[in-house]
Description:
This protein is α+β, with helices and mostly antiparallel strands.
Amino acid sequence: TIQDDESIKKYGLIKKIIKVDDKKQAQTAQIAKKTIQDSNKIKEKLSLTLLGDDTVRSGRVIIINDYTVDIHDKFLVTNCKHNYGVNHTMTLDLKRVEAELDTSKYKTSTTTTVTPNATNSTANATQVDAGMNALNGYESVYRDNGCVDVAVKAGSYYSPFLKQQADIGTADVDTLVNNAQNAGYKVETFNGYANKGDILVYGDNQHVVISDGAGGCFGNSTSAGHAKFYPDANYAWHNGEAPTKVIKMS
Length: 250
């Protein structure tokens, strides 16, 4: 089969021909528009078999640019199986990554110094949801110790401070708590209440999750092996054990 990829990229590829019923000729434009919209919808989840790449594994985000099927987006690898035979292939289960929050307006730093930016900080509920949904199912490279990795990456969608922590690679609870305090964020004893987007701390700085503002939370799960939602924050670390502190992000 001969395929002119350059022409496909420039002009597109005929993927479907639809014959419109004679009785619906007057609706041809509407039918064509609806067909194009339905064809261009990107599924939230995909399963693909591709040429193998050893750098691809569960928890990684990959970019797919395929003009033959018109997919141009970021996907989180939720499951990856490499097959080594005559040819190296990999079978991937993918979840589309939602568009990231535009952080171009945030002040950036070229050092690891924490910028004091907590004054009048508020967490946007929509952005908090976007961060948690984007990281749902994410497998941290830190495995059982990935709670901070998950929290700062999900938190980067709504908090300049948490984005900075993700960028500098903060990965342990002590460092996150200290950096938050140094940046001017309040770290208080947990009294049973937390706003959406606040960081819940368990034990003696042993675990963190993001509060959903309704009694539940989102964070890394050792038993599940990936980030997940918890309907009850008292069961996100040890069963029936409430957080001890809260980093007030709002």
